[in-house]
Design a protein that fits this description.
About 30% of the residues lie in helices and about 35% in strands. With about 190 residues, it is an alpha+beta fold. The strands form two sheets. Strands 1-3-2-4-5 form a five-stranded mixed β-barrel. Strands 6-7 form a two-stranded antiparallel ribbon. Helix 3 (about 130-140) crosses helix 5 (about 165-175). The longest helix is centred in the middle third of the chain and has 15 residues, at about 75-85. The radius of gyration is 17 Å and the shape is globular. It is an enzyme of class 4 (lyase).
């Protein structure tokens, strides 16, 4: 993977707002064949085994818009080590390099590193209904902080990039009001 070239990293969740490294370039991008999903029970960063939170994973099918970060070759090994420590704490993600189409008007497609969920891992949550998402996210707190902060930061950054995701937007709306009340209905009444 590290062949003396710059490293491209595709971020679709917290990497968009907290990459943890200094890229030399940051460009809106899209990957095909994967979609953003709150499908990973968080046992470390945003929850515990007893009170799991939920974090994003790339799951099969569709497409995902996010940010591509270019890391200069001289720093690529250190950034890769950092990402592996951050993203593969419990091995719920598989590391991949696939094409990412940069949305900067250049028409460039670059090989980008990203992390996809392992559907066979016990932390794979699959597709949860909105009330279950709200419950898990509200209870989650781990070494990186409160799970609602993760979801709200991600939702805000997605909105700033013009990325629409109805489920994440609905979840964020529920998280912005006090527990037990929602913008349209009680959480228990959401379908």
């Amino acid at each position: 993977m590290l062949d003396g070239q710059d490293l491209w990293v595709f971020g679709y969740g917290s990497l968009m707002w907290r990459p943890g490294f200094a890229p030399v370039e940051q460009v809106p991008a899209r990957v095909n064949g994967w979609h953003r999903s709150l499908c990973v029970y968080s046992w470390v960063h945003r929850g515990t085994r007893e009170h799991p939170g939920l974090v994003l994973g790339l799951d099969r099918g569709g497409a995902c818009r996010g940010l591509a970060f270019r890391v200069e070759a001289a720093k690529a090994a250190a950034v890769l080590a950092y990402l592996r420590e951050r993203e593969q704490v419990t091995a719920v993600y598989r590391e991949m390099v696939r094409p990412a189409a940069l949305a900067d008007g250049s028409g460039r497609t670059v090989p980008a590193l990203f992390y996809v969920v392992d559907r066979n891992h016990p932390q794979y949550a699959g597709k949860l209904a909105l009330p279950d998402l709200v419950r898990h996210v509200r209870q989650g707190r781990g070494i990186s902080g409160a799970n609602p902060d993760y979801v709200l930061n991600t939702a805000d950054h997605m909105a700033g990039l013009g990325i629409r995701d109805g489920l994440i937007e609905a979840l964020a709306a529920h998280l912005r009001v006090r527990p037990g009340h929602s913008p349209a209905a009680d959480v228990d009444d959401v379908e």
